[in-house]
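__Record contents__

***
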Amino acid sequence: VVLPTFILEKRSLLEMYADFMSHPDLFIAITNGTTPEERMIRFVEYYLTSFHEGRKGAIAKKPYNPIIGETFHCSWRMPKGDVATDAGSNFSAHTPSEQITLSKDLEGQTELDYYTVKFVAEQVSHHPPVSGFYAECTERKMCVNAHVWTKSKFLGMSIGVTMVGEGLLSLLEHGEEYTFSLPCAYARSILTVPWVELGGKVNINCAKTGYSASINFHTKPFYGGKLHRVTGEVKQNTTNTVVCRVQGEWNSVLEFTYSNGETKYVDLTKLSVTRKRVRPLEKQGPFESRRLWQHVTESLRDGDIDKATEHKRALEERQRNEERLRAETETPWCTKYFLKEGDGWVYHKPLWKTVSAAQTQQTDTN
């Protein structure tokens, strides 16, 4: 959906997907769960905390539509002491100021003192507009691979965006794979002050352990009702037993109730956010998001809407011309980091391939 340039967010959708990893401590803590049940619960806790950082502002703004071949790379460093190993202490209690201090301290630490989570995203298709993204923590032998295709439609005073696609979390230490989907997003009140709402049902499933979770993002009813509500439950499929229930708001407070009767409250507004590390513009390739869109971003920062619109139009025109040329010469588009597999896209060097190759090599050496 083409929207006026002035309501654009100053970054690409590919960079916005990186915000799913704003709490790398909670992501890494999933694999520290001592039982399949605990690992599924930890994944649900991490999943539900992954949306609020991407939608911080009260006013909804739209990120740039990535152009085919665009990529985004970043990483996070997490002090090992900040990643919870025991159940019940998954959530870091650092205030934002303490978190900044931690980041400064990090520079003086050796590589053994922290975990690194690396992220890469690529726009792999233009029609339909598919993004692939992949993140891994090699020290903990865990990675996540996802492909998302956004379908937009006008709903009168709103725009609905369906996230078509699937993600796969692999915990190689446990030999477990978790499939998950993403909720729909809605931009409401688009002619006045637009704001974002999530809606729909998502499922998380681990075939090996028989644990699954269903989560409902509730849209606000026409009269009354709370905003941003979410409810969900984690189940053991073979016995049909609910082991955890969750309710609350995905951008404020969540309440987790466990089968042993314990309850935990998580205030998302107080969770520390680890800043992503991105190479400076001059060290980025021409198709990396920040460098590709830098003139649009600069113009928006300067408040020059006409100039921003012109730079954006030039980028999109170039994409259209290149696509026309490929169609005429029947040249297929070659992706850089993701390979087509069935209906999805998979990172070309996923951790499960490199780990199994290393294990095979080790066996051969022995």
Observations:
- The longest strand covers residues 142-155.
- The helical segments are 13-18, 24-29, 36-48, 96-107, 289-292, 294-301, 305-329, 351-365.
- Residues 305-329 form the longest helix (25 residues).
- Residues 36 and 102 are 31 Å apart (CA to CA).
